[in-house]
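Example record for the data management plan.
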Amino acid sequence: MEELLTVQEAADFLKVSRSSVYRYCEQNIIPHIKKSFGIRFKPEDLEKWLEQDKRKAILVDNILKNALTNPPPVAIDKAKGGQEVASKLKARRHYTIGSVYQRKTGGSWTIDYRDSKGKRIQKVVRGATSQEEALLALQNAVRKDFFQANGIKEEKEPICFEELAEMYIRDYARNNKKSWRTDESRIKVMKGFFKGKLIDSITSQDVEQYKGKRIEDGLKLSTVNKHIQILSKVFNCGISWGYMKHNPVKGVKKFAEEAFRRKRVLSREQEKRLFTAIAPLHLKSMIRIFLNTGLRRKELFQLTWENVNFENRQIFISDTKTSRSRYIPMNEAVYQEFKALNTHGRRKGLVFMNPRTGKAFVDIRRAFYGACRRAGVKDLLLLDLRRTFATRLLEAGADIITVQHLLGHTSVTTTQIYTMSNPKEKRRVVSLLEPKRRAICDILVTKKKDAHATYSFSVN
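Corresponding structural encoding:
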């Protein structure tokens, strides 16, 4: 005789509650047999049904669809002779998958349902202002629970690259990156190249073609690398959000950093000529502070007197690129510079204020490049002053970890990009290999009865 499963055995087999099994049978979702003594199930029929994930998805969709077609309950007012009246605002709305109601205290909408194990779940729907929004939250909660209990990965409909790019800017970049506007401008170019393409249809070859197009447009290799980096992050977000399974940027090689890494530092002689050519006093103060603190442009432009501690001789930087605050000690040159700037003993306000706008400086490159031309200093950027600060510290014997903390880098690898070895220092180190300057230390260990060791040194 063929073995049949009871309702409880079928519930254990499907990993759902008994009530869920009865509900599935009522809707003819799962195969079952009606007997005079109850409902029974064939194990092979349930196994075949479980093998098809689409049927699982149809199951929960049918439940949710049935919930929408169920009308809300009608309240009975006994005071009016049993006359039916519409449910009040805080009345509970019952559906097949659960119920929604508005709390008496606070008026928060709440969902009430049982999960796949039969456990009762009650949750407040934050931000819900209507019954429709609460019902939508109930549907999503039941769907998520059902998919997790049955090991189903919900696949979303394929979207175009433009949609994913907009979602990246709106939901990720604006919330996590201070440079999101730069990402937005670069993504506009990407949207034009990948226009109309579904994200699942984009291949590594397409990314290589995009990389080649950017080179044809005259972009620097370093800028092309940044485009590829942003593109990879967009696809990674698409994977984590369930819109795609593979990142087409994976396997696409970036250009070697050594090919375009900037190595410009300011020499002492060029520094003297530059300060002679600078006319505005505030620009001269800024350049001197840049060279002695390694601050970023925005960090100096936004610096206030509250964060300049003359007593402890240190500067507190709060609004940083990496969102990590840090303290920077003031050497004598920086201390005297801030003293000269604060002749009135101010304790509030910006250290450097644009006299034309009365606000913080936005950019000083025009005045800086003009001074460089007058001084005959070529190919010098403001960022090179920060690199000069780091390089001079290392030449003076500072360890790279300390330099990393002063620059505010999260990784020492980034600090290594900012530092440059002095050619004179390289020649000095290589000269140590000459025989006249080489010291050979021979350690001779002799055993003695008292277990002491004798060391003899010979220097050639």
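Summary line stored alongside the record: Residues 7-66 form one domain.
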